[in-house]
């Protein structure tokens, strides 16, 4: 009989997990507590308990070609960066195309997942779900946890002396929907992640003053990168990754520092990260630099203390009047349905092999997906995790490794920080390549060079789009080569609307010259 797999959640990761189970001949049942798919990307005006909450203006931080599932490109007329409604539309098309809905049970909450009494021999799990007030028990052969990590806000008020005296309004960014409440007010945004900067920018259009305070600073990237190309299509190429990972530590940091400061000098804007060697996740925002220049937004250091109607910052003597505080202090990772002994989360860290498998279980039949924040698109990444996990569940051996996946899981032990501090150590492409090599789906540039030179060059110099991982191995997709060779056409079609779009060069010409010299190095590196 087919192996029965329970998938918790029908967001981006849950849909990919369900689809990969079907690809591998497993029998998935996906449990979704709300009434529809989409997870984080399904906007609702009211805030639902235990569900992520979006504000209407959210736009994807990664471009459509870099963030598509690897065998399902976005429609060519979709914009390059996607408003949340279009991203949800894409997920619905994906679910439709691969007939995923029939495997999803909506309005069903997973109450508990416990090891079955004979877990040591079978690896099975006892799952209790609840729908319409009735609880049902099931037994599954494996579990894929896709419940996300944007549901439980982290609001450490004890870190903000005097907040109990503060008479204004304060709330966590999860509560934010529309900027109207900031009309004519003095607003303080605490924290400088993507939400914090988005909310500050929106608030500054109606507020009388907006201040962002950050203890650590942050790198700031724009979606519009060199020569107007999408940032990730320039940043995430095999050539760039090779350079970044081949340079010795200090040189690599100097190079990243140089790259990040090319558009504008972070120090002049009060943004330079505190410790340059600990690079946090860069913030993506196109407006912040000009809003700082025009005085709409001011950057200050961390909060020292709150007074009744004002705030005092570190290294500043004077008080600043404040009416509203938005705490953009992130989220806690929690798995309320799991025993703590299965996935232990301490200080936002979980001990997971390759960020997926709990290391101490006798049988590797439980996987956590999407609990990683790389500098790159999450969709193809959770899909790659699912492709690997479903093959581990089937007990297939990892290609090119005598130990096989199960042994690798048993011996590897990685403490994984959710604090972004090591984001560049978990580089998107390196991680994707690692998992792809486990299942034999990593493209080989040197081998392709002899067989299909144009494709090989496009793969090496061009953006590392997810289709590269469907050229061979299990899950091979016939359309992968064509998708790669037409990726720039799909990128330029929605913007070249005044003049007909001619086929564009797949990569900037200067890189071609430099790249040919580096390709030799690449072959030596076995890239």
From TrEMBL:
Residue intervals passing through the bilayer: 507-526
GO cellular component terms, A-Z: endoplasmic reticulum membrane
EC number: 1.14.13.148, 1.14.13.8
Gene3D superfamilies: FAD/NAD(P)-binding domain
A molecular function (GO) term: N,N-dimethylaniline monooxygenase activity
Localization: Endoplasmic reticulum membrane
Entry cofactors: FAD
Annotated membrane topology: Single-pass membrane protein
Swiss-Prot/TrEMBL catalytic activity: hypotaurine + NADPH + O2 + H(+) = taurine + NADP(+) + H2O; trimethylamine + NADPH + O2 = trimethylamine N-oxide + NADP(+) + H2O; hypotaurine + NADH + O2 + H(+) = taurine + NAD(+) + H2O; N,N-dimethylaniline + NADPH + O2 + H(+) = N,N-dimethylaniline N-oxide + NADP(+) + H2O
InterPro entries: FAD/NAD-bd_sf, Flavin_mOase, Flavin_mOase-like, Flavin_mOase_1, FMO-like
Keywords: Endoplasmic reticulum, FAD, Flavoprotein, Membrane, Monooxygenase, NADP, Oxidoreductase, Transmembrane, Transmembrane helix
Record bears the keyword NADP: yes
Summary of the function given for this chain in its UniProt record: Broad spectrum monooxygenase that catalyzes the oxygenation of a wide variety of nitrogen- and sulfur-containing compounds including xenobiotics. Catalyzes the S-oxygenation of hypotaurine to produce taurine, an organic osmolyte involved in cell volume regulation as well as a variety of cytoprotective and developmental processes.
Protein name (record): Flavin-containing monooxygenase 1
Gene name of the encoded protein: Fmo1
